[in-house]
Amino acid sequence: MESFETAANMGSSTNLSQVVFQEIPNSYVSNVALTCCYTLTAAIQPNPRDWVGIFKVGWRTTKDYHTFVWVEPSLDLIGLEPVRKQVLFTAYYLPKDDAAFYQFCYVDSKDQVRGASTPFCFKTPGEQSTDCSLENDLLVIITQEKVEQREREKEELVMELGQLKEQNETLRSALKEQQQEIDHLKMSNEELYQADGNTENKRENARKHEELTQNTKLMDDSHRGQEEQVEKSEREKEELTMELGQLKEQNETLTCALKEQQQETDHLKESKKELVQLVRELEQQQENTREHEELAKNAKSLDESQRGQEVDLQSSKKVKKCSALKEQQQEESKEELLQLVSKLEQRQQQNTREHEELAQNAKSMDESQRGQETLTTICEKYEQALIKIKQLKKEREELKGKVEVQSVEIAQLSPRLKESEQESHKLKDHIQLLQVDLQSSKKEKEKLQDLKTENKALRRSLSEQEQQPLQMVDIDWKEQYQALLGQLEEARTQLHKELQVSNNTRKRAEQAERELEELKECMESTAMTSDQTKQKSSKLEMQLSELNEIIEEKENMAEIAKVEKEELSRENQDLKRDIERLRKEFDDVQAAAVPMQHPNPYGSSTDPTANKEQQQQQEALADSLHFGNPYETPGTATNLEEEFSLECRHCHESFPGITQDELELHEHSHRACPFCTLICDGMEQALYEDHVYSHEV
């Protein structure tokens, strides 16, 4: 058997020089189409079914190709002149393994290799540019060593081929001699039929029978060798069945792991839905807080307007008292006072409306307080959501670990699959060899049947000779003849047994092939499911990352809202203090004793300058009735303006005669830290940013 395989390999190696590959570099760029140049010698007759394939170094059969391209039909191969051809390999089907070596092989329509190239590898453009010359030199040295080893192996194989050819010639000569002997025996048998009582012919026949017995013994030895080979094949099949059982167990474990992953993914989906609901609740809570802040601002503005209206009412009462004293002298002022009264009534109506709005706002404030109570519950839910998010992160890490373990297991199973495929190819080759052996055994059986017919003819001749009166009968020759008959019967039984064993081996080989196909399908299905789980896990990771980003944004918004609330509370406290201070000052001003500015209207005035001054004061009163206090002097008004001067809470500078809006604009013009309210007007931009970032750290 080994000699047969070596002869087949040598026959294929002698054909490798019929197609010569040229201009093969040490490496090709991956993801780029490549052209393969080769020349067809006169020793090969091209066929449209020929193909050029890329094989990994160490291939065994022509089915181990990575990719192939059909050869263009060459009609210009004329005479003994070589023809140069080329083939294009697309970038999509090229191998991606950078560490492995490959070679081009020209395979004809009969699946025989007619030419092979020197080995090469595939590299990425970056790696090819960064490779140093020393590595290239090492690769060249390694490839040269491999080429030298191949040449040595080729020489050894050529030597073995020569020896095998010599052995074949000797065997053929021996077969020819045996055929000549058989012909000679046939001639002697015919002579035996003709000659009846020649003892010398009988002795020659006995010698020939002895030679036949020796030949049958040789046949028995060959059959025993075949039986040993069949036993080896059975052992290999048993080992394959054991490995198949192990692979089935591994598939079952993988299916269990996949089911667990699916359950975990379902759990993650449910937790994701809960997180989405929590995020929606947080958004609603933020909207409620914003509405609450707007209501608080409206309430403050209403309080300020109400206080201004109270001041206006007090001033209007004083104006009424003054108008009762001056009705006799100033009729024009009465009309203005009536207008003022109508305006005040309108303001009172507005005040009642505003009071109603304030009541509604108070109700809304109560509702907002209830919303604040719900906010506390929402904060608790938010903390629970954070805990759940941490748990989900842990589960995600565990899932990543499991996916990595499964990828490692798949990587470990892939070489086993390749090994099982190689073993299946080996089994197929072994089955083909067994078929060849069966054919040879059939031929030997036919030869034995021919020998049987000859023996029957000899028996007939011997029976005829026994019937004839013979004077000299050799008892030893009869015993030898009977022994030969027994050996022939044993050979028959052995042939029947070998045929049965060969049939059983065929059936077992077919079963093994079916089991291998089923295993391949199972492994493909597991690979598909593992890819699907990887895709699902990647999608879940993306969704979790998006949720984490959303949660971080919500946390940042919550922190910003807290800071804004603190700032608003501080501003509210400052405003309350200012309002209380203004009230105290206003009460002090009212409590102070104001001297009479106007003289008695019923008294007679003789001084004309006094009359002029009274007229001027009356005009001033008419102008100041809308907003001013008629009982205060101009000096006291200036003092009040000085008392009502506003002060900046950052730089602590007072601004007399400025409104609250202008003061806020001034305060916003300062560069203040949003965390510690430090004034940073004198700082540079870089120092200011460092100060702000120090609070975040």
UniProtKB/TrEMBL annotation:
**Signal sequence, start to end:** none
Where are the compositionally biased (Basic and acidic residues) regions?
199-240, 284-310, 352-370
- UniProt-recorded name of the protein: Calcium binding and coiled-coil domain 2
Domain SKICH: residue ranges: 19-122
UniProt entry keywords in alphabetical sequence: Coiled coil
What Pfam family is a match for this entry?
A: SKICH
Q: Where does the record place a coiled coil?
A: 147-195
Polar residues composition bias: which ranges? 602-619
Residue ranges for the region (Disordered) are 196-240, 284-315, 345-371, 591-621
